[in-house]
């Protein structure tokens, strides 16, 4: 489901005149598809940080995010044969991860066990280099992100944190580009409402 | 040029942030902002929020994550469901942890004092997690609800205690399945699997808490509408194929009843149902049955229950 007429590409998506995405992972993907484990390991190295970060923002829990990342790459390895390369590998794997995060969150909602957001907002794993003020802002934002609807959280992570284009978001979320824009608008408004009176000061 | 309203302007802020406005829309917006302090402040706040999100630091993955991924992939030949089960194990752990907390909270209001003497526990109504997992009470060995509805009804009057060992042997023979670990053992293993939790609580304290889970359930005495096979099944989850099969039949034959029973469960009881379901080594094909039932389901409670079960189907 490509949405080529979907408005401006926002992130620096390398494109050739035919509109075909240039994926720097394509050679590795081709090798991995032929069963080359070494090539797939290179893809894991390249993308595991990003997938983990995305899952962590979605789930709010390091251990769950690590499990989710492992699951995602395992699923990718198994279904690589079905990857048609209309999207970039990074988009494809983000889609797998997001679907899984969404399912996990739904299961928790269904079981009414409350959100999975267990990590304290100021995560020590992000190192001491962040200034105190920055950390406070990050804490406010992460708390608010954890409180909004997962669908809103998801699209904000894809757009603002992963820096994806409308097209890529449409591919990952299985939405039309127009719907992506309106949902993104609602998500931003929802986050803003959560932060009102808290931040910005 | 028409005067844009504040409402129109705010509808455009998201597109403004993305640089997705036409030149005309943008001009109109800027004109409005120059004369409207409220919209101007809101625009600034939206921009700053967007900016801050972009700068949000990413959590660093655990140092062994690549190795874990590689191991999972290389282990696929021998254990197919391994990858999926990891996150599910985690989910089970999370749910059990929530269950523990709920259990602890429940102990408090049922202590003596305030509301007079503590209610005596119902005889054998609620086995402890250990008894439950090992199938100690008589009715749990009994098979499927339909024919055994009457038998289940008499349960509350049955004698309370059966020594775990003998019960285990009788339960064990029913299905040629090795005795499952007790609920408590599972819970301990799950909890220990989570390093961060282990850091927060030492093992001794956890053991005590898990022991209290049973006490809490018994003390709460849950005002269960007795007699419904659905309630009986859900209140006494067993990680065994026969139990899962009973649930599956109810899903097919009397889904509404099951949904009502599910709705009446506490969070902790739901956790236990899901944990048992996940461990029950149910017959293959159940996932497909669940999905078919989900297709048909209209009732929101039924849907949420089916969804939870589907998520916990290995």
Question: How would you describe what is shown here?
Answer:
Chain A is built from eight helices and no strands. By secondary structure, chain A is an all-alpha fold. The longest helix of chain A is centred in the N-terminal third of the chain and has 23 residues, at 37-59. Chain A is globular, with a radius of gyration of 18 Å. Chain B is mainly alpha-helical. Chain B is built from 19 helices and no strands. In chain B, helix 9 packs across helix 14, helix 15 crosses helix 16 (255-264) and helix 16 packs across helix 19 (300-311). The radius of gyration of chain B is 27 Å and the shape is elongated. Chain B starts with 5 loop residues before the first helix and ends with a helix. Residues 77-85 and 104-225 of chain B have low confidence and may be disordered.
Most residues in contact, chain pair and counts: A-B, 72 and 60 residues
The biggest sheet of chain B amounts to:
none
Low-confidence stretches of chain B: 77-85, 104-225
Q: How big a fraction of the residues of chain B is strand?
A: under 5%
Topology, pairings included?
The complex is a heterodimer of chains A (201) and B (314).
Chain A: H1 26-33, H2 37-59, H3 62-79, H4 89-110, H5 132-147, H6 150-161, H7 166-173, H8 177-195
Helix pairs in contact in A: 1-2, 2-3, 2-4, 3-4, 4-7, 6-8, 7-8
Chain B: H1 6-11, H2 13-17, H3 23-35, H4 37-54, H5 65-74, H6 82-107, H7 129-134, H8 138-141, H9 145-153, H10 164-174, H11 183-193, H12 195-200, H13 203-220, H14 229-235, H15 241-253, H16 255-264, H17 267-279, H18 286-296, H19 300-311
Descriptive keywords:
heterodimer; A: 201 residues; mainly alpha; 8 helices; globular; B: 314 residues; elongated
What's the short version?
By secondary structure, chain A is an all-alpha fold.
């Amino acid at each position: 489901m490509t949405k080529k007429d979907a408005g401006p590409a926002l992130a620096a998506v390398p494109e050739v005149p035919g509109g075909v995405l240039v994926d720097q992972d394509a050679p590795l993907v081709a090798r991995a598809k032929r069963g080359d484990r070494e090539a797939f390991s290179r893809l894991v190295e390249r993308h595991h940080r990003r997938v983990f970060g995305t899952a962590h923002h979605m789930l709010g829990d390091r251990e769950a995010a690590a499990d989710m990342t492992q699951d995602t790459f395992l699923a990718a390895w198994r279904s690589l044969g079905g990857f048609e390369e209309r999207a970039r590998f990074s988009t494809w794997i983000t889609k797998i991860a997001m679907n899984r995060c969404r399912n996990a969150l739904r299961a928790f909602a269904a079981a009414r066990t409350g959100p999975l957001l267990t990590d304290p907002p100021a995560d020590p794993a992000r190192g001491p280099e962040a200034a105190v003020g920055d950390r406070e802002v990050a804490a406010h934002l992460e708390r608010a992100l954890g409180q909004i609807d997962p669908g809103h959280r998801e699209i904000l992570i894809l757009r603002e944190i992963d820096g994806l284009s409308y097209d890529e978001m449409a591919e990952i979320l299985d939405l039309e580009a127009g719907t992506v824009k309106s949902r993104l608008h609602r998500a931003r408004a929802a986050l803003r409402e959560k932060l009102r009176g808290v931040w910005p000061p | 040029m028409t005067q844009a309203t504040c409402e129109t302007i705010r509808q455009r802020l998201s597109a403004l942030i993305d640089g997705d406005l036409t030149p005309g829309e943008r001009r109109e917006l800027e004109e409005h902002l120059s004369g409207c302090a409220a919209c101007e402040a809101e625009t600034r706040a939206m921009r700053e929020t967007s900016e801050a999100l972009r700068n949000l630091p990413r959590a660093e993955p655990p140092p062994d994550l690549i190795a874990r991924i590689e191991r999972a992939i290389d282990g696929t030949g021998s254990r197919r469901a391994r990858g999926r089960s990891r996150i599910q194990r985690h989910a089970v752990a999370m749910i059990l942890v929530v269950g523990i907390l709920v259990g602890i909270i429940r102990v408090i209001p049922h202590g003596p004092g305030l509301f007079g003497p503590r209610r005596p526990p119902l005889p054998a109504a609620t086995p402890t997690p250990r008894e439950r997992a090992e199938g100690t009470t008589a009715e749990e060995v009994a098979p499927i609800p339909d024919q055994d509805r009457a038998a289940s009804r008499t349960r509350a009057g049955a004698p309370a205690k059966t020594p775990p060992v003998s019960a285990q042997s009788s339960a064990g023979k029913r299905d040629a399945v090795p005795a499952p670990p007790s609920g408590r053992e599972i819970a301990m293993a799950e909890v220990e699997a989570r390093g961060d939790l282990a850091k927060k609580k030492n093992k001794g304290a956890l053991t005590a808490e898990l022991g209290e889970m049973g006490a809490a359930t018994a003390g709460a005495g849950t005002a269960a509408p007795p007699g419904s096979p659905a309630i009986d099944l859900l209140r006494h989850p067993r990680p065994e194929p026969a139990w899962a099969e009973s649930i599956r039949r109810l899903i097919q034959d009397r889904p509404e009843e099951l949904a009502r029973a599910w709705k009446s469960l506490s969070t902790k009881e739901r956790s236990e149902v899901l944990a048992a379901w996940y461990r029950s080594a149910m017959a293959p094909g159940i996932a497909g049955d669940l999905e078919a039932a989900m297709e048909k389901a209209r009732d929101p409670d039924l849907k949420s229950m089916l969804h939870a079960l589907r998520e916990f189907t290995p």
